[in-house]
Amino acid sequence: VQLQESGPGLLKPSQTLSLTCTVSGGAITISASAWSWIRQPPGKGLEWIGTIRSSGSTYYSPSLESRTIISRDTSKNQFTLHLSSVTPEDTAVYYCAKNLAGGVESWGRGTQVTVSS
């Protein structure tokens, strides 16, 4: 499975970040699969944002839940992160990933997102 993130690299505060992960080599609807968004702010560790299961159900980090929606387009084999009301604290490298047994089986290469006025 290969994953590729795409989306804008620069946003202004209060805008909504939308990043899409395009998956190849495996369907995002394959039974029992799960797909996540993870980020790494500069100088900090990895932070899980949220996950969408093959069933379409979603769950999010409590600290980000109020601003986060993960959706999917099964016809394109893509899933998308929407993070609203961004601030400079949302500046990070954002990764999409395929989960396996509580961990990560495959990672995208990551995309830099910077929030600045």
Structural description of this entry:
- The structure is a single chain.
- The protein is an all-beta fold and 117 residues long.
- Helix content is 0%, strand content 54%.
- The protein is built from no helices and 11 strands.
- Strands 2, 4, 5, 6, 9, 10 and 11 form a 7-stranded mixed beta sheet that branches. A 4-stranded antiparallel beta sheet has the order 1-3-8-7, with no helix packed on it.
Brief rundown of the structure:
With 117 residues, the protein is mainly beta.
The whole-number mean of residue pLDDT values reads 96
Q: Which parts are unreliable, with pLDDT below 50 for 5 consecutive residues or more?
A: none
The Rg value, from CA coordinates, equals 13 Å
Would you list the SSEs in sequence order as H and E?
EEEEEEEEEEE
Tell me the strand percentage band.
over 45%
Helix coverage percent of residues?
under 10%
Structural class: mainly beta
- 3D shape: globular
- Please report the number of helical segments: 0
Gap from first CA to last CA: 37 Å
- Strand elements, count: 11
For the biggest sheet, the summary is:
7 strands, mixed
Question: Could you outline the blueprint of secondary structure elements for this entry?
Answer:
Elements lengths: L1 E5 L3 E2 L5 E8 L9 E7 L6 E7 L4 E3 L7 E6 L4 E6 L8 E9 L2 E5 L3 E5 L2
Parallel strand pairs: 2-11
Antiparallel strand pairs: 1-3, 3-8, 4-5, 4-9, 5-6, 7-8, 9-10, 9-11
